[in-house]
Automatic annotation (TrEMBL):
Location of the HotDog ACOT-type domain: 8-120
A Gene Ontology term for the protein's cellular component: cytosol
InterPro entries documented for this protein: Cytosol_ACT, HOTDOG_ACOT, HotDog_dom_sf, Thioestr_dom
Protein name: Acyl-CoA thioesterase
Length: 169
């Protein structure tokens, strides 16, 4: 019988203050920098679940909801919401706070897929406790089916792509 781990046991939380060096030309946090931060946090959740080395395989359903600006803080929360034999899904939400007023807001959400490198690892069962966790875990199979469909489409696309450099014709 396999072990059961709760979503809460995979929870990883990181906080960051937005500095001038984080901003793009629109004076909001550069999206690529934010993606790097959330990938790092999500990887902790993946490792807590698998207790093995995992790599990021996909970043899905990235929703930039509200921008982060200078002197905001952002709190990244991630936890596992489903898994297959060697892959697992991590949900990430980024909560912003305007530090001068204390107002909080949902700034971003995303789902990341990680793959366990060690083929011998047997992933534990996952249990959800809160309403949010139960809702996200309940829809895992739908998201997984959609990802599989998109992977098949991506493979067709990749087969048609040229690897020649256009300037060397």
């Amino acid at each position: 019988m396999s072990e059961t781990i709760s979503c809460r046991q995979t929870l990883a939380v990181t906080s960051h203050r937005v500095l001038a060096s984080d901003l793009n030309e629109h004076e909001t946090v550069y999206g690529g920098a934010l993606l790097s931060l959330l990938d790092g946090t999500a990887s902790i959740s993946a490792s807590r679940f698998a207790r093995s080395q995992c790599v990021t395989a996909a970043l899905d359903q990235v929703n930039f909801i509200k921008p982060f600006v200078l002197n905001d803080s952002l709190c990244i929360e991630s936890y596992v919401t489903g898994h297959g034999k060697r892959s697992l899904e991590v949900f990430v939400k980024v909560i912003g706070e305007h530090l001068d007023t204390g107002e909080r807001f949902l700034g971003m959400t995303a789902f990341l897929t990680f793959v366990v490198l060690d083929k011998q690892v047997i992933l534990p069962e996952l249990s959800a406790e809160t309403l949010e966790e139960k809702s996200l875990c309940a829809d895992f199979q739908k998201r997984e089916a959609y990802r599989r469909q998109k992977i098949a489409e991506q493979k067709k696309l990749q087969a048609s792509l040229s690897l020649d450099f256009p300037w060397q014709s």
